[in-house]
Design brief:
Oligomer: homodimer
Number of helices of chain A: 10
Structural class of chain A: alpha/beta
Order of helices and strands of chain A: EEEHEEEEEEEHHEHEHEHEHEEHEHEHE
Distance between the termini of chain A: 11 Å
Number of strands of chain A: 19
Chain lengths: ~350, ~350
């Protein structure tokens, strides 16, 4: 079958790969749609650095999955919806033809294999892939496959908002209105948070921020983020979401945030970053790092999308086949043209 | 009257200063004991930098106090107990002779004046000072003036532990066993947290850490902090208190802490500090900055000390008169000889 793989750690190519066969506890599915994630672009550029940073850390529990090797083909694509083809032996799964999604992980007797950045198993940029039967969720309410594929990135927003423990009556400032920022905005709006002030240099993304629920969306080149916050909501403490993830954002927030504010770092910054702890101490700030989501948050997000509480349609700005993935990676560098491009393998 | 003041922003000198007179709402007190705080040493070395960092920040509410000028004499000493001499006109206060303490602030119609790092009002390194009648707390239970003076630094520990929202059943790792670290240890122990692992290069401070409640106290030159934590408590997530406050500590903690750990930054680091946000994201860490305490925490700490729940006696390692303050500042650089030196003005 065909798959778009990362080769030599940098180049995406469409190639033929072995057909996956479901073992016990697994389900073979046909991928219907798979979103291209900013992390995928990041990994294609900085994969070696990301692995090195991972090795530097201690205290990270071994998941039991196979170690990733960049000199072998790497499978990517972790924002997918798919149709059930066939369950493995002695495996209870939804009937063939059912539209499903899943957190991007496969459980086996030797551990958990992530369905992203792996040499082991085909992921969402493939015609077919294996899922774990216990993790499979049926897509409810007749939701279409394209919207269902956005469950994963939107769950990232819900998780960040949950991690923020944002109180009713609080407001939020969302720095950056790319897919992660938009997912945060949607989750904040669903929770009734007001005001939500978003920022982005791109007019198209500011428009999307408003569509997804921001009460104001400002161009930080014209009105700096914290000045906008101050104008909209006075000097009240605020929950700030860093959905940009480049050096300097955390320091800016520490310096300018009102006392007792909280900074949720959702954007991944691989580089070293300089902060001034004194700002944090003088104003008693919090920095909370947020990553991914738990299975309950994933399921809740699928429900929110299927029930129409969150309309992800406006975020989908393009669609390509497997052969179009390399070009789509290049296209996504332009925030005016694209938010989320879906890969539709067949 | 006599006071030890900071002159020219760097040198401590004992000099004669005008006698304070209580206005309405104020109480004139005679200082019985006043601890020398690490922040005082820090301010005598880096006062200009601290003021500059303060000016760089935005979003800090104006307290209404008078701006501090380093080229005028600066009053210091914010860890005090004192005896009531005389209340101002139309002011309800404990009778003369009562031993009291207070958060180091004086309320006036124009705002709040901090009783530390101020040109405006004599503070604890003085024979006499003014307190705000509504903020004055009687020292209960016959507690002596020397121990009562440690209410303020111990409240810093209670506040940090409160900010940590440390759950029952969690353990704690306290980096640095100076007065701030010891205050954190005492507050953790009082809350029943176990294990408490403390670190310090100094054998005397490690001994004090055990005395104040640490279950283990390790020399990080022999056994690095997170290795000690791992030995004592496996790879469980941990609440880490940074009571050192020098560059590199936050980064070390982000790199080595188990997933879902929380870092409470209590030590003041004025310099820029480099962190790798990726570590924080990959392990979903929290960094919470803690500063001072609220009046309820201050009062609760006084009660804990007076009731004998926390014995601060072992922390008091020296005593000087006003003329001895400059020498005491030099002495405190040596962690083997001293923890807390009390100034006893009269």
């Amino acid at each position: 079958m065909r798959s778009a793989v990362l080769r030599g750690g940098r180049v995406l190519v469409r190639d033929d790969v072995p057909e996956p066969a479901p073992e016990m506890g697994q389900v073979l599915v046909e991928v219907k749609a798979c979103g291209i994630c900013g992390s995928d672009l990041h990994f294609a550029q900085h994969g070696a650095t990301m692995l090195e940073r991972g090795r530097e850390m201690t205290g990270v529990p071994e998941m039991g999955g196979q170690p990733l090797e960049l000199d072998r083909d790497v499978f990517m694509g972790h924002e997918f919806s798919a149709e059930v083809l066939e369950a493995g032996p002695d495996t209870v799964a939804p009937p063939a033809g059912t539209l499903v999604t899943s957190i991007p992980a496969v459980i086996s007797l030797t551990g958990i294999e992530n369905l992203a950045y792996t040499n082991a198993l085909p992921a969402g940029y493939s015609e077919r892939m294996l899922l774990s039967a216990p993790l499979v969720l049926e897509v409810p309410n007749g939701l279409d496959a394209r919207r269902a594929a956005l469950t994963e990135p939107m769950a990232v927003g819900l998780h960040a908002v949950n991690r923020a423990e944002i109180a009713a009556g609080s407001g939020a400032l969302v720095l950056g209105s790319g897919p992660v920022g938009l997912a945060v905005i949607a989750a904040l709006r669903l929770r009734g948070i007001e005001p939500i002030v978003a920022t982005d240099f791109s007019p198209a993304r500011r428009q999307l921020a408003r569509t997804m629920g921001a009460h104001e969306a400002v161009d930080p080149a014209v009105e700096p983020a914290f000045e906008a916050w101050s104008r909209v909501d006075g000097a009240r403490s605020v929950v700030v979401f860093d959905a940009i993830g480049v050096p300097g954002i955390i320091e800016d927030a520490l310096r300018q945030a009102p006392p007792q504010s909280r900074l949720l770092v959702v954007g991944v910054c691989m580089e070293k970053d300089a902060i001034t702890p004194f700002y944090g101490i003088a104003k008693e700030l919090d920095i909370r790092f947020a990553f991914a989501y738990d299975p309950m948050e994933f399921a809740a997000t699928l429900t929110s999308i299927a029930e129409g509480e969150i309309d992800v349609g406006p975020m989908i700005t393009g669609e390509v086949g497997l052969e179009g993935v390399p070009e789509a990676f290049r296209e996504l560098a332009n925030p005016e043209r694209h938010c989320k491009i879906l890969v539709v393998p067949s």
